[in-house]
Input
Amino acid sequence: MAGRLLFIKHFAFKEGATYPDDGVNFETFANEQILELESLGPLVTLRPGMTASHTETWTIHRGVKFSGKEADIDKYITPLT
Output
């Protein structure tokens, strides 16, 4: 359907790292007012003066064809990632 927007959020997953909340690097929450898409970085121990970073890259695509069928993901969505 023309005019639709697709939001894609990229973030890293570090194989073998320890993640919070039973080992996940992504959580969602939704209610009547909001949709939260939360990415999680691996757990790290920081000593004074040390830093950690977690980078997300967001892209928005306009006019993406998608019928809502899972089979369309490979055809229309995957090439955008």
